[in-house]
Amino acid sequence: MQLVLDIVSWALILAGSFFTVVGAIGLVRMPDVYTRMHAASVTDTLGAGLLLAGLMVQAGLGLVTLKLLFILILFFFMGPVATHALAQAALHAGIRPQLAEDRTNRLEESETDGRQS
Hints:
Helix 2 packs antiparallel against helix 3. Helices cover 87% and strands 0% of the residues. The protein has helices spanning 2-29, 33-59, 63-92, 100-116. It has one domain.
């Protein structure tokens, strides 16, 4: 039974670590504020959620699991609220999202500038 719990907990921990690393890479690679916020919210919600779930399975029933559950609930409620508030503040400040058309036009312009040089 302990072997099954170890396998499940390590699978959850590794999956959470994977989503955290992917979210961190997304933070660096994404082109604008809004897509970066999306990458950060994936890291907060899915990565941290899976990590905490794996830690809860590893800890077993007890006070530590209850504390981890409270942290998980805090992440699930406060992360999306903070991301939404940040997006609203960015919109209010006049930061416009980059659309696919904007990126296509910018790529075409850079190709045209490269040929003229």
